[in-house]
Amino acid sequence: MTLWSRYSEETVEVAYRSGSFEVNRYSGAYSIGRLYSGRGFRVVSCAGECRDWAKSLLARLARTGDRTSTSVYCSDFYKGDFTIGSRTHLEEALAIAERTGKLLRDYGLSSEVILVSRHVRVEHSVEEYGVEARENRWLHELYINAYTLYMGSLLSTGFALASTTPKSLNADIERIVNRISERIKLQARARRFNPVHVGSWRVLLSGDAACAFFHEIAHLLEADEPVKLGLDTNLGGGLKVIEDPFYPGPLQRVFDDEVYPAWRRTLVDDGVVVDYLRSRLTSGNSRPGNGRGLFTRPKPMYYQLVVSPGDWGLDEVFEEVRRLIAVDSIVKAELYQGYIRIVPEYGVFYEKGSSTPIKGFEVLVPVSRLSSLLIGLTRSRSERYSYEKNMNIYEVAPAVVLEARISV
Q: CA-CA distance, 35 to 38, in Å (whole number)?
């Protein structure tokens, strides 16, 4: 089977720095041919229209390479058109960037604000099945980098948010600027974590930290990962994790990059792993629908990861857990030697009603012991928009209370 695709993008980028604007525009169009066969997967791409050349090259590639079976899954493809989002005009983009920068300046913060508005069109055809599918999408991404000098040290933080409409993006700005200001204030007050206290702690992961925690768990639920959580593995905590293409987030969709219809895939139900993210080549006996990548071998990966809320309020967390470390903003998160490793920008140590910002530590959660470490989830949830392997992703997750190891 050969899947032909045409990808085109028109992008306007507005940057606002120190009261001045920079505006860039660019566009491009590409043709892609992807061949699924018993000899393996092959892909060719080029700028512009090049179907005849791609057909010739794919034909030659089909006769070469290994004979590893691709386990090609056959089912109904999506047929039709999908349009989401609305265009932003240059004046509107300039106003959003300028407003964000001025709000930050009111807090005494310098900043770089970048608004990227993309109009993406993707057209697919599968000749063997008579399939035609098209997606027409507007996506607006706002990147905020704020900084200030405090007692000779540079304090900085960043935030990214996205929406399919500039109106809803604009509505979130004041809330985000307030969060950025609080982050900078906590960084200014933070004390270095005392290595004497390295060891086991109760930890509250909220905001970006909670989303990143579940993002790393989702990596272990990708069907092509050689090391992943086994089906029926108990993760505890009554977790319910869904890849939900219909959640009202910025990456809603009706089909994936392999033109399979979108559907809500439950990955973890009541704390137990019940399914994996699957592409056409990793579907086994299950339905695909999570294939991502037009120019590479499709990766089974989520677009929108949604974790169901728990039953704790944040006030209840601090009442029940008298001594804990709370983490919201992070530098990075990764899977490292069997641990979910989270490096915070800062944290807050709570004990007996008092709070102390701290820095210079990391949170380690052993994957093999998740079921015994998860304590509870909150009713409130946060969201995060980011990129992974050059693909945009979106997460919605409650704050999570767990036992973790604090290291320096």
A: 10
Q: Each residue of 329-345: pLDDT tens digit?
A: 999 999 999 999 999 99
Distance CA 109, CA 103 (A): 9
pLDDT tens, residue by residue, 228-270: 999 999 998 899 999 999 999 999 999 999 999 999 999 999 9
Q: Residue 65 — pLDDT band, cuts 50, 70, 90?
A: low
DSSP state of 234: B
405 closest CA partner among 348, 347, 366, 369: 366
Domains with residue ranges and CATH for the chain: 2-189 (3.30.2290.10), 192-407 (no CATH)
Query: Tokens representing 326?
Result: 């709370």
Residues 406, 192: Cα–Cα separation, whole Å: 13
Residue-averaged pLDDT of the chain: 92
* Strand segments (E) across 127-211: 131-150, 153-163, 191-192, 199-205
